[in-house]
Amino acid sequence: MYSITNRSVKIFGTNIFALRRYTDNANVATLKGGENILHLSLSKKFPQAKEIKIKDISGGCGAIFEVFISSTEFKGMSIVKQHQLINEVLKNEIKSMHGIRIHTEIPVENKE
Prior knowledge:
This protein is an alpha+beta fold. Helices cover about 25% and strands about 35% of the residues.
């Protein structure tokens, strides 16, 4: 099962519609080896994360991953800083990858 997120992204003044798919990893034990390793590393660094999703987008060979993290720990950081932080956490794993896509967000706090 997938959860789907749609966003309109502006690049150099042009609106681009992006459709992103991530694994539903409510049960981390169902993740494959590479996905599980990334999830564990990110869970340790971002213990307050509302959501961490990892997807092998290389067709199963573990060469390219898509990472999504929703955490209040990103509050006050630019997107570049958020992505740099993730790159630092995964620097050893990234060495053996062909590519990585990183998506981050700060969850909306409920005002009840």
